[in-house]
Structures are given as structure tokens and as C-alpha cells.
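RECORD TYPE: protein structure
NAME: DNA-3-methyladenine glycosylase II
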Amino acid sequence: MTDADAPTPHDHLRTTDLEPLVETYGELHLDPSDDLFQRLVVSVVNQLISTEAAKTIRGRLFDRFEVTPAGILAADADALREVGLSGQKVEYVKNVARWFDEQDVTRDRFTDMTDSEVVADLTEITGIGDWTAEMFLMFGLGREDVFPVGDLAVRRGMEQLFGEMTRGEMRTRAEPWAPYRSYAALYIWQHYTDGDADIDGIEF
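PREDICTED:
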């Protein structure tokens, strides 16, 4: 089988219990970021706050500062707090900037790493936990088989679709969606943000 003949993520998910979501929302896409540093900073900003609050803070940050390792390292901590970052997140984004600068990080660093190795690498940075690393895997590197059960919206979306379950049960439920669990997460997020839309065909 050639690459052209291989099933797409959407073809695969249509063979699973997520088929109704694919039919409802069409072909969602996972696009890796052009700027890995900015992508990781965005994930730090997004930690533990609402989507709207994160959007506002990101806009202020990118409007006011050069969001590069050098730019963030040079930025005054008080000025960073003025855009809405907590004191702790100011420390975290500076930690990320220092790591990128000192390690001379490029995309090549991650090419031969497994997903688990990338998570282990990133979580050496103070302020980067599993959730932030998984967001980087998906939206920074475009890794296709990440299922972030640490994400509140994923958990709530799963429970809307399939009923109450533990994180372990969610991982088990997601096994048939491999090797495209990142795409499955996109569909679950879309369903959740639609406000518990009525999806015909999902088996509870």
C-alpha cells in the first residue's frame, strides 16, 4: 500500500464509534505550528484559565512583546504581569525562553523522539506539566496519536458522549481510535464546545 492509498485519520475514525462526529463536523485538521517557542508559550498562557481569558491575555502578550526567547528573556516581569500573566506564569514563560535559548531548540530536536520522550524532555522545564507537553505534541509538532485525558474539555466531552467514566476508562475507550487519537480529541473538543449537541448514532 502506498501513502496515497493509506486511510486518512478521518477514514479511520469513520470505522469507529466516532463516525457520527466525523459526519457532523466534517474533516477537522491538525496543523503543526510554524513557531515552536510561541506554541509552547501559548500553552503556558492557557493553563488553568478560561478560553476567553486566555485569548485576551495572548492578544495582549503578542501585541506588546516580541514573543521570541530573546524577547521574553529581556521583558520586564512587571510588564508581563500587566498583560494578565500571573507571577507564576511570568516565571514559567521565562523558564521556557531560557530553555529554548540555552538548548538552541529547533524542530530537529524532537524528530527522532517518541511522544513519551518529548513529554519527558519538556517536563524538565519548571512550569511544564503533562497537559502542556501534550498540547505541544499536538499543536506544535502535529503528532497524530495523543489523547490528553488531563484536559478538562476532553473529559467533559467524553462524559457527554459516553457517560461518566474514569480517566483510565477514557483511555481504554480511546484505544480503537489509535493511531489518530489527536484527531479524536479534536472531534470531542468540537462536540463539547457545541454545548452537548445531539449526535445521532453514538452508542452510550
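COMMENT: Confidence is low (pLDDT under 50) at residues 196-204.
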